[in-house]
């Protein structure tokens, strides 16, 4: 399947079709500005803003990148992720301290908090400029971008609930916050947050619990590429094992292979009607 050339800008609520399209938007965040502009226009968005900043700790010389595309009915901000090996190295550093969460609620992984802080003024000001009363607002991202999308939604909601996004869709998102922020987020984003995890993707398993946890609304993609809203523990263990046998020559690579954005897109395409 090729990227759709038309998007239903007025639809709301959860659907696999929206999950697929926002996954495409997350993938687009890895492209250059010209490619983003061209695709946004093809999708029917008249305005695009690009956001990019640099910061040092704890990720040396790391770019934080995102883009916002806006139309008459919809605004989407997509945050760029990073390479699986890089984020694995960052998240395995147990010495990184947490930081207070948005609105002083709970705690957040320091690196994610710093990354969002570096780009938030540009995102906030863009939404203030482009957002009207009738537009639906979506945040999305893959990997590190998923963590930033979730935190952007939390920040907007906790700082001014009237500005809460209509939905947040993430793909391969790492654990991002503590239980206090997760519970506040689950309450504020009930039926609006959807966190997709592809089988044995290693990144959602980091940083280690219980210091950090996930928000709710998991959508698990099983070893047969089916999107499931729930997976019993026993069935989940068997399915993870099935995923490990997909490549008998390199079973240990499954956690990285399942994390690639292309793997998420391929799986979601199979669930489209």
Automatic annotation (TrEMBL):
CDD domains: Lipase_3. Gene3D superfamilies: alpha/beta hydrolase. Residues 76-209 form the Fungal lipase-type domain. One of its GO terms (biological process) is lipid metabolic process. Coiled coil: none annotated. InterPro entries: AB_hydrolase_fold, Fungal_lipase-type, Sec_MonoDiacylglyc_Lipase. This is Fungal lipase-type domain-containing protein. Pfam families: Lipase_3 (PF01764).
